[in-house]
Amino acid sequence: MLKAHIIKKRRELQVNVSLELEAGAALGLFGASGAGKSTVLACIAGIEEPDDGYVQLNGLQLFPPSLLLHRRPLGYLTQEPGLFPHLSVGENITFGISKELASTAGQQQWIATLRDRLQLAPLWNAPASLISGGQARRVSLARMLARRPALVLLDEPFAGLDRQLVRELIDDLVLWAQTIGFSMIAVDHQAEVLKRLCPQKAIVLEQGTIVQRGSWSELYKAPATPLLESLLAPL
Question: Could you give all domains of the chain from N- to C-terminal order, each with its CATH number?
């Protein structure tokens, strides 16, 4: 479903990563800060343009050349909610959805499901500028999923949130991945978070390159590098 080879030069390193992900699968990108994980996601999302390589999603060429952001059938969630402060919560969630699609019964039901599951009904008409940080994360999650993306990219979207909310959001994502059938690539500095989101597959990056691929049990049993061993060590 997703085939990508990302080559991106940074001042301190060069990212050179190849990956494939089948439909409905989940992949965790793990490694120390500055390893190039976020760069890989940003290049797939189209926020950054690779220096070389290719990105294909369901046969659609995302790069090269760079496909416009609004034409990419994917969702991208980061630490920053990126909401429009002058719009209400409901308007933020439905932003960018065509009137034709928004008027269908199926889409209206899906929006209602997101609203209720993420406990956003009491906030629906509130200005986005007046809600809390945790509420804004839930709104940004709903907005990302409202279009039913084929691929979801998560770049540490749970950083700074309390553990209970993180558990709830992870449970929601896992449930919806099964319901909608989207694929998922997640980045997080906590192995435990990635194990819950992407229990089967992981890729470990160091200095912009892949040093290990495998299941989490394989990573824990035989970490490929001393750095990975230290990252996986219990606190």
Answer: 1-73+150-235 (3.40.50.300), 82-148 (no CATH)
CA angle 161, 175, 84 (to 5 degrees): 50
Rg (CA), the chain: 18
| Per-residue model confidence as pLDDT tens digits over 128-174 | 999 998 899 899 999 999 999 999 999 998 888 888 888 988 998 99
What's the N-to-C CA distance of the chain in angstroms? 37
* Sequence-ordered alpha helix ranges (H) in 13-86: 37-45
Q: In this structure, what token pair is assigned to residue 196? A: 């819950």
Nearest of 151, 147, 221 to residue 181 by alpha carbon:
151
Query: Residue 15 and residue 81: Cα distance in Å, rounded?
Result: 26
Confidence of residue 189 (pLDDT cuts 50, 70, 90): confident
What is the SS3 assignment for 139? helix
Peptide bond into 65 cis (omega under 30): yes
Residue 52, both tokens: 């070389």
φ and ψ at residue 42, rounded to 5 degrees: -65, -35
70-86 mean pLDDT = 92
* Residue 202 token pair: 């992981």
Provide the pLDDT for residue 18.
Answer: 97
C-alpha closest to that of 92 among 115, 113, 110: 115
What average pLDDT does the segment 38-62 reach?
A: 96
Q: What pLDDT score was predicted for residue 235?
A: 61
